[in-house]
Amino acid sequence: MISATFPQPLSAAIRLSQGHLNLLTVCPRKFQYTFLDQLSSPNSIEQQERQTQGAQFHLLLQQWQLGLPIAPLTQADPQLNQWFTAFEAASPEILTLPGNDSDPIQQAEHERTLELQGYLLTMRYDLLLSGDRHAKILDWKTYPRPQNAHYLADNWQTRLYLYGLVETSPYEPEQVSMAYWFFQADQESSTPQSLSFSYDRTQHDRTHQDLTQLLQQLTEWLNHYAAGESLPPNRECDRCHFFPHCFSSDFDQPDQSRAEPSNPLTLPEILEIQEVPL
């Protein structure tokens, strides 16, 4: 935990990704432990390997989009080669915009920033297709397509990415969409599967309202945190590795010896969505 000299959150902008928003929604206390107190435990070797391979696949597609050599990556890893072969086969469908928009601009690892409630909301699109009348956000996943599409529909990655694109571009909500592509094949087919989400003004207004409320609540929580109080827990904690720490007898006691980080307004980076099955 950092000291009670933590600045007011609106005195300078804190950068928040969709990963921060998701964790705030799941459990504010876990957000505190992970980003403010930096108490996160290491991932398992298997999780680290999946995340590393997922990051390599993102790099592979970025290099392909930029016209850079990809053979060193595909030749060194049969799994990456399999995923890329599946991408090439499906690319006419993947890289197509709705309507009659042709030859869209392709921007890999495209970043956008939006200010709201004194915070900087940051978005990084794996690939953004921009046409005259439509735009589509593409996101690559290296695990199988989840059975429950509602999870991704409600996830802050989907909601923030679509909201942020509309707020930072001339497109209307009905002109943007987002598609997740899942490259981990099942036993029946090697063809990548997708989940697509359209957008409209009603969704946009609801996301704006939910974001505003969540960020206002975060400001209140950070002000209390600056005074030595912990953020509230979710209380649905059976599988959380912070459970013993969170519910120990002294977890709410302020620690006067805690060290202040060099820049308390910069939260550590979080992966957009960990490359593990949902």
Helix content: 25-40%
Arithmetic mean pLDDT: 83
Low-pLDDT ranges: 1-11, 249-265, 270-278
Q: What fold name stands as the CATH topology?
A: Lambda Exonuclease, Chain A
The main pleated sheet reads as: 6 strands, mixed
Count, helices: 9
Distance linking N and C termini: 30 Å
Q: What is the CATH C-level name?
A: Alpha Beta
Q: Please, could you describe this protein's structure?
A:
This protein has 278 residues and is of the alpha/beta class. It has one domain: Lambda Exonuclease, Chain A, CATH 3.90.320.10. Helix content is 40%, strand content 17%. The chain contains nine helices and six strands, in the order E-H-H-H-H-H-E-E-E-H-H-E-E-H-H. Strands 1, 2, 3, 4, 5 and 6 form a six-stranded mixed β-sheet that branches. A hairpin with a 2-residue loop joins strand 2 and strand 3 (119-130). Helix 1 (18-26) packs across helix 2 (28-36) and helix 1 packs across helix 7.
Notable traits:
single chain, 278 residues, alpha/beta, Lambda Exonuclease, Chain A, six-stranded mixed β-sheet, 9 helices, 40% helix, disordered N terminus
Task: Give a topology summary.
Blueprint: E1 14-16, H1 18-26, H2 28-36, H3 45-65, H4 71-76, H5 78-94, E2 105-116, E3 119-130, E4 135-141, H6 149-154, H7 156-167, E5 176-182, E6 193-197, H8 201-226, H9 243-246
Parallel strand pairs: 1-3, 4-5
Antiparallel strand pairs: 2-3, 3-4, 5-6
Helix pairs in contact: 1-2, 1-7
